[in-house]
Write a structure and sequence with these properties.
With 939 residues, the protein is mainly beta. Among the domains are: 92 residues, Immunoglobulins (Immunoglobulin-like, Sandwich), CATH 2.60.40; 79 residues, Immunoglobulins (Immunoglobulin-like, Sandwich); 114 residues, Immunoglobulins (Immunoglobulin-like); 118 residues, Immunoglobulins (Immunoglobulin-like), CATH 2.60.40.10; 216 residues, OMPT-like (Lipocalin), CATH 2.40.128. It has three helices and 70 strands. The strands form 15 sheets. Strands 60-61-62-64-65-66-67-68-69-70 form a ten-stranded antiparallel beta barrel. Strands 49, 50, 52, 53, 54 and 58 form a six-stranded antiparallel beta sheet that branches. A hairpin with a 2-residue loop joins strand 29 and strand 30. 43% of the residues are buried.
Length: 939
């Protein structure tokens, strides 16, 4: 009966509180490159997900950093996969518990980091100076790479002669024609070095061409002897040695053959063969792997240097050095590398490396890297009769030094420039504008003008101007794209294919980056609220971004973007470097600020990383206040320049200093309105408690961010499981003592025994939904043996105490810690010693079932690895009869939710039982100590 009651309650709670969701939809997140070091943020949509649900993830490999809810029904996995060696998938088991119940596997598509080499081959092994002709150079990339073949291109150079432009072949190779120099006096190897233009620091290769030269070779030989010189299998001579012991040959010297055989015949016709060293000059050959003609100033580079011996074997002597004495790192196969930082000064730059006394140089022109750019408009809002305004742009380098003499690009809508922009000589540039006729607002977009390096695009960076747009079929939002090369410099004139793989919005199908490597798209919203995606592609280089289509009248949303750490860093950098300013005339019916909201993307921070803060300022009527630039403070943190978007919203970056942990407290004041948000660091919250949405606060009096939730570890979590079913075995120590009071009757006046018995335990526990109400049940089964005195009377008895109870729990301040109270029913069994006849010559043993009510309370501790419960309870029958103390521990066993359970229970029986009409009162004092170990299943 007890088991039937328990199962009925479990089914009732499960059916009444759990809902089942549909298939998880993996959202576009751009290419996911698994290098074993970079954290990837993968977005997915879980239909029906609510704030009350808890989301867990268990990857089959790698490290799960965190799980966060990025928006309505949107979840972001923060995951660090192991390094991939080829395109592959990673299985992640997702589980949701709360209002929804969901268990589903998803497959994450992963790409490998750049690796391998470029194999360089030539159509001939050896050529001779002055003989004319050309050779075909063929490049074949080998090894894994995240970009498709269509996106890759290569640089190739030769240490001598001229190499034509590369041409792509249908089989994936690239070919060029090499013309050797017309003259040469010393035989040697020509080194052909190649670089993957999309990853020049990682993927290189080389080939060699032996250049022979026909020259006179003077060798010592016996005077008057007749001599023949054999190089390889080619004989030269015979020639007669002079009186001073010298013999001269006109021979073709091959650098790969440093020795020859001299065959000498003296006057007696005796022949002597000897090995002679040929005079080839310096055999060592040195060459840098090629880089583009322009390089960013102040950039960290890896220079690859090839050093070969004259016969083509890798150099094994002392490490090459740069002109400043920096020694190279041996990478193997003849390759050496230097880690250098280019100077900050623009213009010509040259670096020289030396090995075995042979030097080579690499030259480039240093150009501007991306500067730190901030912009402001004055006045931020125009009065009704004003039309003139100015935009001031501040440029600094990575060290915070002012940059002067730099050119800027201004794109203006709704206004006209008044004169040329002025360089103020202090790192700022001011441009003046005037609103066009019959226009009440203008938009100015500022970007730096950078010199391209000459490399092709290796990455596309894409982001929307706003994270959300109204789903009314007509609202639009700008989407920005920048094509970047391997050094992060924009690439101009790149043709881009555009699509919207998710959502019902629309964009033009193609775009082209301008002379500054940038393009602006216009996304027109559809009519269906939800997540939408924009995809851009250029010759196989792919990028994607998400935005939200919101219901008409809904507040704008901040959206945590997916992607890799480096992709998000590039997005953050370029979003800040390409600001869009708006200036508008203030409306006469807008009142002073009375309320504001603060949103952050993302909802956490890491030391040194920028957080985008968006402040929305409203008046008492809920109208946007356009001229109320807020005052923002961050502790600890640095507040960047505030951009007035002209629609009542203001953007600014805030970041923690490098090496400083959070939490980051951001306070905002605009007139009488205040707001605040508290962001934890990603490192401090771990994988089990990331904020459910982007950090938000609002109201006239401010407020905090959303409460932490979600997350998961790498294995099957022990905590945060709705239903647990356990079975275990062990032993029970039973200490029994009973006495009777009252008139003399059929009960023994005193009885006692001790026993250690085998034990089976079954238990179940359910915490459905997000409520604090749960149910648990427990039943024990044990068999013990009782012998009466020295007689042959032996009894085998079964004891099966059990209970079922409802619980109510509340969280404590410590994460994952709860207190609870419980109430239910308990069935207790005890034995009664008596007599079978009136003269008390024969004993009798009977069972007494004692039902009662059970009340208790305790503490629960949940983590990703353990579930610990401690409880103290009392059974009333109708007076206190059984005091129970129970300890339980669950730990994960396998990723499918199975677990190991350890239980330790102590029951103190202190029952009073009326056994007959004669007034005999039985008092039982018993102790049961149970230890069990078993397995279970968490759902």
């Amino acid at each position: 009966m007890l088991i039937r009651l328990l199962l009925s309650l479990l089914v009732l709670f499960t059916l009444s509180t759990s809902a089942f969701a549909g298939t998880i939809e993996l959202l576009p997140a751009g290419p996911l490159v698994a290098d074993g070091q970079t954290t990837l943020r993968v977005a997915m949509r879980i239909p029906g997900l609510t704030d009350a649900d808890k989301v867990r993830a268990r990857p089959e490999s790698g490290e799960l950093i965190a799980v966060s809810v990025a928006g309505p029904e949107l979840v972001i996995l923060h995951i660090k996969p192991v390094a991939a060696t080829q395109a592959d998938t990673l299985t992640v088991t997702m589980s949701v518990r709360g209002v929804m119940k969901l268990d589903e596997d998803i497959e994450l598509p992963l790409l490998p980091p750049p690796s391998g080499e470029v194999v360089v081959s030539l159509s001939a092994e050896v050529m001779t100076y002055g003989a004319g002709g050309t050779a075909t150079v063929t490049l074949r990339p080998q090894g894994a790479h995240p970009l498709p073949q269509s996106a890759r291109s290569f640089l190739v150079t030769a240490s001598e002669g001229k190499v034509s432009a590369l041409t792509a072949a249908p089989d994936g190779s690239f070919t060029a024609t090499w013309t050797p120099p017309a003259k040469g006096t010393v035989p040697g190897l020509v080194l052909f070095t190649a670089t993957d233009a999309t990853s020049p620091d990682r993927v290189v290769g080389f080939g060699t061409m032996a250049m022979a030269v026909k020259t006179k070779q003077v060798i010592d030989a016996p005077a008057g002897s007749r001599n023949t010189l054999v190089i390889g299998d080619v004989p030269y001579g015979p020639a007669t040695a002079t009186a001073d012991g010298k013999v001269t040959f006109d021979a073709v010297l091959d650098p790969r053959k440093p020795t020859g055989t001299l065959q000498s015949v003296d006057a007696t016709a005796r022949r002597t063969d000897s090995i002679v060293d040929l005079k080839l000059g310096s055999p060592t050959r040195v060459a840098f792997a090629p880089l583009p003609p322009n390089l960013p100033a102040g950039a960290k580079l890896r220079l690859n240097l090839l050093v070969l011996q004259g016969d083509g074997r890798p150099w094994s002597g002392a490490a090459p050095t740069l002109q400043d004495g920096t020694a190279a790192r041996n990478e193997g196969k003849g390759w050496f590398s230097f880690d250098v930082t280019t100077p900050d000064t623009l213009g010509a730059w040259k670096v020289t490396a030396t090995a075995d006394g042979v030097s080579t140089s690499l030259s480039a022109t240093l150009v501007d890297p991306l500067p730190a750019l901030t912009a402001s408009v004055s006045p931020p809002v125009l009065k009704k009769d004003e039309t003139a305004f100015a935009v001031t742009v501040n440029l600094k380098d990575a060290q915070g030094r002012a940059l002067t003499g730099r050119k800027l690009n201004f794109v203006v809508v709704g206004a006209t420039a008044v004169g040329a922009a002025k360089d103020n000589g202090d790192g700022t540039t001011t441009a003046k504008f005037k609103l066009n006729k019959d226009v009440d607002a203008a938009q100015v977009r500022v970007s730096p003008i950078l010199t391209p390096t000459g490399l092709p695009p290796a990455r596309l960076v894409v982001w929307p101007r706003k994270d959300s747009v109204t789903a009314d079929g007509s609202a639009t939002v700008e989407v920005f794209v920048v094509a970047l090369d391997a050094f992060g410099i924009p690439v101009p004139n790149v043709a881009i294919n555009v699509s919207a793989p998710r959502g019902d919005g629309a964009l033009a199908p193609t775009a082209t980056t301008d002379k500054n490597g940038m393009a602006v798209l216009s996304y027109r919203a559809g009519s269906v609220p939800g997540a939408a995606a924009v995809r851009v592609e250029a010759k196989g280089v792919l990028a994607e971004t998400l935005l939200m289509q919101t219901s008409p009248g809904a507040a704008p949303l901040g959206l945590e973007p997916p992607g890799s750490d480096d992709a998000l860093a590039a997005r953050s950098t370029w979003r800040a470097a390409w600001p869009t300013l708006q200036v508008a005339k203030i409306g006469v019916d807008v009142g002073p600020p009375t309320a504001l909201t603060v949103a952050t993307v993302p909802s956490y921070t890491t030391p040194g990383a920028a957080i985008l803060v968006t402040v929305r300022v409203l008046d008492a009527q809920g109208k946007a206040v356009l001229d109320a630039t807020p005052v923002v403070t961050a502790s600890p943190g640095n507040v960047g320049a505030i951009t007035n978007n002209g629609d009542g919203t203001y953007n600014l970056p805030v970041m923690l200093p490098a090496g400083v942990d959070g939490p980051l407290n951001i306070t905002v004041v605009a007139g009488a309105a205040t707001g605040a948000v508290n962001l934890p660091t990603l490192g401090s919250i771990g994988a089990s408690s990331l904020a459910t949405t982007s950090g938000t606060s609002g109201g006239g009096g401010g407020g905090g961010g959303r409460a932490p939730k979600g997350g998961g570890g790498g294995g099957a979590p022990a905590g945060d499981v709705s239903f647990r079913l356990r079975a275990s075995a062990g032993a029970m120590g039973y200490l029994y003592n009973a006495t009777t009071k009252g008139v003399d009757g059929p009960l023994a006046s005193e009885a006692a025994f001790r026993a250690v018995t085998p034990l089976l335990v079954g238990s179940a526990e359910l915490w459905p939904g997000a409520s604090g109400i749960g149910v648990d049940g427990n039943i024990k089964l044990s068999v013990y043996r009782v012998q009466i005195g020295l007689s042959d009377e032996v009894y085998n008895r079964v004891t099966f105490p059990g209970h079922v109870a409802l619980r109510y729990r509340k969280p404590l301040e410590a994460p994952g810690t709860f207190w609870f109270v419980s109430g239910g029913a308990r069935l207790t069994e005890t034995v009664v010693f008596g007599y079978a006849n009136d003269d008390k010559t024969q004993s009798q043993l009977s069972r007494e079932l004692v039902p009662g009510g059970r009340i208790g309370g305790g503490v629960i501790k949940e983590t990703d690895r353990v579930y610990l419960r401690a409880e103290l309870a009392e059974t009333i029958t109708p007076w206190p009869s059984v005091t129970s103390v129970a300890l339980g521990l669950d730990a994960p066993l396998l990723p499918d939710g199975s677990l190991i359970h350890v239980g330790l229970d102590y029951d103190l029986n202190h029952m009073r039982l009326d056994e007959n009409d004669d007034g005999q009162l039985l008092r039982v004092r018993g102790q049961q100590i149970s230890l069990s170990v078993g397995v279970g299943q968490g759902l």
